[in-house]
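hey can u check if this looks right to u? its 393 residues, i copy pasted from the old doc so theres a chance i mangled smth
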Amino acid sequence: MTLGNSMLIPIFSDMKSALNISQMQVSLTITVFSIAGAIFIPIVGYLSDRFSRKVIIIPSLILFGLGGLLAGLAGAFFSNAYAWILIGRTLQGIGAAGTAPVAMALTGDLFKGGEQSRVLGIFEASNGLGKVLSPIIGALLGLIVWHSVFFAFPAICLVSLLLTIFFIKEKSNRQAPPPFKKYVRGLFTVFKHEGRWLFTVYLAGGTCLFTLFGILFFLSDTLETKYSIDGVWKGLILAIPLLIMVTTSYITGSKIGKNFEKIKRLQLIGFSLMTLSYASLIFFEKIVPFLLVLAFSSIGAGLILPGVNSLITGAVGKERRGFVTSLYGSVRFLGVALGPPIFSRLMEWSRTGMFFSIAALTLLVGLLILLLLHVKGKDGEKNTKTKIRYKYV
């Protein structure tokens, strides 16, 4: 899923020149992918609860690969290539809807307690690792020809497909799914009682992805237009903030367990770091100090995302986990979808205004976390920890 967007960022300028399209039209190749995913994620989430996770993941990977193949062929051979690329990207978005969000629910099924938090930390780190590797892979493939990036998707999907078929073993004691009306009533009950904090953490995750892809879009354009940095060096620089986020996510996930107070504290620290980083970036234009200051926002995102994953996967029982985690996936997709086009407009408006705007956003979300994130808890052993207790299991 993460390769689906990040791998295109290094080839944007070449795509823009080859297809004779605007910067906004280039950004739509990410937007249509993410919006399609956001729309279909709740649907596949319900279906994964109704049937099984693998039944959804396998055809989703096939569709993702076919969408990439269509986009690649369009770029290589079609006269109206841009329209067909958007169609291919839409198919990829639908396919992506059944990959990472459903895998997150599957992780919740297979692991429990502190081990679940640790594995979800690995999940978020692998998500970030895809973001780290993808601009480098995209830059390398772009050296051949810009549309060769699209042909990488079918190959990667084939490997993922085989690994899923042969190595993912779902538990055999899966209960029969509840009738649709009962399923929906259960979801309404969950969101009625837990909706305030649940939507707050949805917003937290979406904000991290929105600012991340917006900044990458800005940085990709700046590296090429201002510093004339292209190719592999551009991919390596784009990977730096992502690598910092991945490392922080992995460490955070391995340490938080199910300690709600620790999760909330790290979320507040994370949004504070993001706010300070984005507000400070207006004073730095040289690439090295800019990346150093930007690193603090990456650390902040790495502190936030594993805790969000842990909270959401524990919010409901297995029979509705697919929908709840998939709805979070929709929010993440919308964050990715909105990042490039909104940052494109903000870049045209004002560099200073852009950074102050996103700093204000992260400050607001941090305040919402402070005020609204109150999960019902009970004291742990020796009253040293507050552990999450969910009412609807």
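Confidence is low (pLDDT under 50) at residues 377-393.
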